[in-house]
Amino acid sequence: MNILIIGCGKVGSGLANSLCRAGHDIAIVDADKEHFSRLDEDFTGYAVVGVPIDQEVLQEAGIESCDCVAAVTEDDNINVMVSQIAREFFHVPKVITRVYDPRRKRVFSQLGLNTISPTSLTVDVIEKMISGKENETSNQVTVGETVLSVLRTPVPKEFYGAAIRDVGHDDSETIIGVQQKDGTTLLRESCRDYTFQEGDQLLYVKIL
Fold first, then answer.
1. Which 3 state secondary structure label does DSSP give 93?
2. Judging by beta carbons within 10 Å of its beta carbon (0-12, 13-18, 19+), is residue 157 exposed, middle or buried?
3. pLDDT digit string (tens) for 84-100?
């Protein structure tokens, strides 16, 4: 498939690396060229520096001939705007939009956008943990041909005392929150100053 990815953050770069290894033709757009350092050394796709909502930038990245657009920047507004441009102006067959606000996810889904919300994924996982129904398969979601899984693991000792906003992870993984020793769960977007403690569990989305 010919796939265009908008945003070369942890999710975008991880998705680009994974899909490129799978043999797909990948183009990725980001306004900051430094973000492309997250791509694998053997990445064979096309990296374009530019404002993602600029139609000329999207055309340079090959949007007119792509089969799928995945908008996965850290900004919900940019993701939605790019998705609408891809659908309405370039008639891309499949458009996938990442949105953090689950309320907006419902609205955009009603408009026909294929949306995925890390916040909603986290809530679903926590509900399964509380009900005792959690298992690895039920915590997975398929986006196009890519499978994402929401997992938890003990916080590494080297993270103790570090703020969640300052901690990165593997290119194929995105930290979405933390579960404290007493069972309290905090989402990254609402607790960016929280510092990791012994006994915490890290919640993250992983590209399988």
1. coil
2. exposed
3. 899 889 999 989 888 87
- Give the whole-angstrom CA distance, residue 56 versus residue 185: 43
- How are the residues of the chain apportioned to helix, strand and coil, as percentages rounded to the nearest 5? 35, 30, 35
- Cα-Cα end-to-end distance for the chain: 18
Give the predicted TM-score (pTM) of the model: 0.63
Distance CA 51, CA 53 (A): 6
Q: What is the pLDDT of residues 104-153, one digit of tens each?
A: 656 666 666 677 766 666 666 666 655 555 544 445 655 444 556 667 78
Task: Please count the other Cβ atoms lying within 10 Å of the Cβ belonging to residue 63.
Answer: 23
CB 134 within 8 A of CB 128: yes
What three-state secondary structure class fits 103? helix
Q: Is 62 exposed, middle or buried (CB count within 10 Å of its CB: 0-12, 13-18, 19+)? A: middle
**At residue 189, what is the residue type?**
E
195 secondary structure, DSSP code? B
The burial class, CB within 10 Å (0-12 / 13-18 / 19+), for 143 is middle
Q: Are 195 and 158 in contact (CB under 8 A)?
A: no
Q: Name the 3-class secondary structure at 48.
A: strand
- The CA distance from 77 to 62, in Å, is 22
Strand 201-207 relative to strand 146-154, pairing: antiparallel
